[in-house]
């Protein structure tokens, strides 16, 4: 391979993960100020040795991205990562035992389905065994065990991994009691899980703990772009996220901790879209407030794939943003949703109406944040739905 003079070639070691990213070479830029020209690189992997990749980079925040055939290139001021398009679809070679809180929720149900279909054993840590069993009947999910709260500790001991997704929904009118429950449901369950992990004998201690948090950590802004290095905001949800994350960080130092700051999760049977689609169908759809607020979204399948990758890939540590690479303004979301449904996006919901419905929590709807998944991209994670139009078409088809 011929390397341009302003790039210095350094080998990138193969991942030890069973869900590894096929990353063959990394090129370290000698100067972050130099512009990356159009390059032609020939991959040295036998599987792709006949494919020439043409890098045509564009900027996504501080990251540039390029795609050619089955290969995607991620470029920042330090290196180019070359990742296989099908990397997230490679199944692990060994089975895990995964204990999950919040498994009956919007994200959790899809995660259980994915892990079970991949041949892993799943322990659903629940406070309502009847609800869990109705979602995961034993005939359909023979590898899924329903565990009531009194048995959580014994089931966490001996698990390969623990995923913590529990938390009261925030999309309701906030009263002092609701605010207390938003905090308590997250911090309380996380405390219980961390204490159970830390109490496990070393030979029964889970090796990885993936704990949900949210992009609300960053606060809100129409002008700033946030990534994993950005500081915490100062509003109530930022406070909740700080407490949530600091509780998870008390896990034993020998357990690999991944904190996934989740954006607005899209799919048709839950979350924001489930509330918006009926309004558009009756010609009552449109943005709330100005429509200029940022909407940092992620398709549910991509989020589940990110969690699965975090479970098995030891390169995932610390904070990882669970958002798609291309956030949009709320007005753009509404325009694209209306176009796909064949309905206009014309009925803007005034601020005062949103404030009347949600009270103090209205700022969650009327304000937003532009959050980029810089760490996931640098680690070579391959988003199936990078652009909102593709995600909406897949969801609504």
The overall strand count is 21
Biggest sheet strand line-up: 11-10-9-12-13-15-19
Largest sheet: 7 strands, parallel
Low-pLDDT regions: 1-87, 89-93
Number of helices: 12
> What structural class should be given to the helix and strand makeup?
alpha/beta
Strand content of the residues, in percent?
15-25%
Provide the helix percentage.
25-40%
Overall pLDDT level:
82
The first-to-last residue Cα distance is 43 Å
Shape: globular
Radius of gyration, taken over Cα atoms and rounded to an integer in Å:
22 Å
Structure, explained:
This protein is of the alpha/beta class and 397 residues long. It is built from twelve helices and 21 strands. The strands form six sheets. A seven-stranded parallel sheet has the order 11-10-9-12-13-15-19, sandwiched between helices. The chain has a six-stranded antiparallel sheet with strand order 1-2-8-7-6-5. A two-stranded antiparallel sheet has the order 3-4. The radius of gyration is 22 Å and the shape is globular. Mean pLDDT is 82; it is low at 1-87 and 89-93.
